[in-house]
Amino acid sequence: MNSADKNFGSYLLCLWPLMFIFLIGQSLMRLNGNAAELGITTALSITDTVVFLLLFCATAWWTFQPLKQCLSPKGDIEKHQRALETVMSAFPWRALKFFWLAGLIFAVYLIIIIPLVAIMGDHQLSWRMFITLTLNFLFASGILAPALGVTLSIVYAARLRLQMSRQGLFSGALSDRHAHRHITESSHRPWLLFLVTGLVPTLILSLYIWLAQGGSETEAQFILSQAIVLLAMSVSASLLLVWHITQTLKTVTLTLETGLRHLADGQFDEHVPVLFDDDFGELARGLNTAMLGLQEREDLKDSLSLASEIQQGLLPKHEPVIPFYSLKGFQQTCYAVGGDYYDYIKLEDGRIWLMVADVSGKGYPAALTMANLQAMLRGLATLDWPIEQAAGYLNEALCDTLTAGRFVTLFMAKLQPESHSIVWVNAGHVPSLLLHTAESGDTNITALPASSPPLGLVKNLQFDVVRTDFHAGDTLLAYTDGVTESSSRIGKEMFGEARLREWLMAHADESLDTLPHTLLEDLKTFGRNDQDDDLTLLCVKREK
């Protein structure tokens, strides 16, 4: 038996819950007497089981065929790998189509055979009983079976990806033809599970109650028995779905956690397996991209121009669109690469992570630390950890990786547009400035000072989270010390926070798009030299 046949055998074994749910429904119908009432003999039950096995084994075989062909590499390895990635991406969609079709076929088979047997055997089968049977068959075969089939196929594909990734046979690149990510999107899974095992069964049971109220005692007893069958299959299926999804997500989380540890430990030659084509898969790909980029910088220390391009690629490409808010970021490094960092990451619920960081030192060493920090922050934001927990994780990782005397200052905030507020942490960073313009036209500035030491110096730090309201017309200016430490041409006097406050109040009504460039021009007029220090700005304004 070749490897492709072995994998198909593993896939069939992975689908055992389908048979389990079928046997639960069949056994309960025999135990509660419904099978005898309808004239369903043991021979007919065995026939139904054989038809079920043949139909769903054929469905599994047909679903597996494109994958089977790709598991037997021939010719160009690179071309074969691209084909495998395309098939893997489309595998859940293919499973959904075929298992849904097989489920409907089997449901129609039961809807025809069972009433026909009852009628030919002169057994009672009222229209109420017929509707009850039809709903049970359609739910079990047309909803539960496809849901289990596609879930188990995703679980199997994740296991296969993990195995092949460890063997170096699967890179996890996202196919350009992948267009069905909605099937595996992690944020959709709870709703799909609720729909399949919660809402639909509840609606059907409600209909059973209505049917039972208007029927005879015999019909009511039959409908009640069928309700028990439906409930048992629904609960069993939900337990199986939750267990499989939980176990698979646990595996995914462990691989991502391992990837974050590799980043923190500087093991940039490691690879994170891409198990799903969803947001977890994007995170794994992002970690792999970050580690690959960091490894390239490690290998190409003398190629600063390439390092500069890579570093710019780590910064946001565009500002997120948020109703009633404007965002603008700006960075200027004194060398080809630098240790300043800013980012804004939009979460699915509309909140925005805002980060400004400054790595001690300049040039290539600081840039490597910044890239490591960016990768960890992106991963933590995707997992949507509380910012104090994220800061604690970053501190522990940086304490283990930074050499003595090096550190990172960080201002990290979470913008909450719904409540028009921000929650923030300042770890040794220069105070961000919040400009408030009252309805009367008066302006005042509130500083958001540091409440803890920089990251990477002391372990087990506690971080204070502060909530600040964001009123209409308010502007937040987060920056690095390259702004306030800009020196004048004469006397080497620094620009300082006081001048920055005055400057911000004077430009309160200026467009956010021009604000960074206006400040840079004023700093140059003051005497700033581009070689003084890295300079980074992140501006957020709530429109009036």
Runs with pLDDT <50, length 5+? 174-179
Cα Rg:
31 Å
Number of domains: 2
Estimated helix fraction: 55-70%
> Mind summarizing the main beta sheet?
5 strands, antiparallel
Question: Helix tally?
Answer: 15
What overall geometry do the principal axes of the alpha carbons give? elongated
Summing up helix and strand content along with how strands pair, one would put the structural category as alpha+beta
Share in β-strands: 5-15%
Strand order of the largest sheet: 1-10-9-6-7
Distance between the termini: 71 Å
Average pLDDT: 82
Number of strands: 10
> Would you list the SSEs in sequence order as H and E?
HHHHHHHHHHEEEHHEEEEEEHHHE
3D structure, described in words:
With 544 residues, this protein is α+β, with helices and mostly antiparallel strands. The chain folds into two domains: 3-259, no CATH class; 318-542, Phosphatase 2c, domain 1, CATH 3.60.40. It has helices spanning 3-14, 16-31, 34-38, 42-70, 77-120, 127-166, 189-213, 217-265, 279-299, 304-314, 363-383, 387-401, 481-484, 496-506, 515-526; strands at 325-332, 340-346, 352-359, 408-416, 421-427, 432-437, 443-448, 466-469, 475-479, 535-542. Helix 6 runs antiparallel to helix 7 (189-213), helix 8 runs parallel beside helix 9 and helix 9 (279-299) runs antiparallel to helix 11.
